[in-house]
Every structure is written in structure tokens, then in C-alpha cells.
Design brief:
mainly alpha; elongated; 2 domains; Arc Repressor Mutant, subunit A
Length: 208
Amino acid sequence: MANLRQRQKESTRKRLLEVALDLFVTRGYVATTIDDIASAAGTTRVTFYAHFESRKDLMRALMGELNEILGRHTRPDTGGSTASPLVEAVQVGSRELLADWLRNQARQWPRIRPYILSATEASAVDPDIRSLFHEWIEDVVADVVEGLDAADRFDAAGRHFRGELAFANLDQTALYWMRGGGFDIDTAPEFDVMVEAWWRLVGTGGLR
């Protein structure tokens, strides 16, 4: 009986996350209330709060799902997320390895599109979500810095900013694709431009 209750609880939590993500995309984060989420999930406001303290707490759970999709794991030292393939790609710094990592990320764009668009909208209007999203961005930047530190490439004082610029490049390219650009990552020049920017910002191309 205890196992059944636990499965039901997990099922309800998953349903709340699925419904919230769908509503954030179709209605927008601002227009979606906790009551809307609970009602669409076929449950109550009380049940929502039994699983999540707030919309921010729910968004944190969605960011956790995003990390799983992108293969990001928990850092034992900080509790943030990390992706060793990114660290390795930056450490090696070759155009080919960076292109492979970026292409693997781009292949996830259709799946992560609702997560990114929802988090981007929410962070623009909600300071708490903005802080949460910034923490996630910093985790990605930290991977870039770790790779640059391991390679001892570029001046140490500028490595973090290089990571921020690289992330901004990837983020804006992804948003362009998600908002209607829809280019083919295997043939479109947009992808090659992004790779070139990464290679020169954090790879060995910047040493030439």
C-alpha cells in the first residue's frame, strides 16, 4: 500500500510538471496561475502545494528535468550541475570537438524548446526565476572555465567572461532556432558561425 501511495504521489508530481510546462508555453508564464496548473492537472491547489512550495520551486524541478535531458549531473562540491563532455571539449579546444559538442546540444533543441522558452520568459518578469536561471547559466559557464583552466588557455582573468560570451552565443542561436529560425544544423551557415565563434572564444582558434 505504501508503494502504491508513493507511485501515485510521483505520478501526480509528474503530471503537474507536464501540465505546467505546457501551459507556460501555450499561455505564457505570467498568465499561468497555480490554480490553472492544478485545475489542468485534475487536482487542487492544496495538492499542488503538497508537491511544490511555489512556481519557483516548480520551475526549479523543470530545470532539473532540463539538466537530465542535456546530460548535466550534480556537482558534489557545489550542488550545481556539470557536464564533463563540455569540460573536455573546451579543454581540448579543437574546432572538431567543439562542433561535436555543440551539434549534440542542438539536436536536443526540439525536446528542450518548451523548457528554454518558459525559463527565458519567466526570468524576464520574475526576479526569483531570474536568479534561478542565472545560477543554471553560471553552472554552464563554470564548465567552460574548468576546461580553460585545465588547458591553461588564455589569461585566467578573462576566462569567465569568455565562458559567458560563449554561452550567450549558444543561447541566442538556440532561441533564434526555437522562435522560428528552424535551420538545419547539418547544413545551415548559422550553425557553422556558432562553431566558429566558440572555437575562437574558448578553443584553440583564439590562439592564432
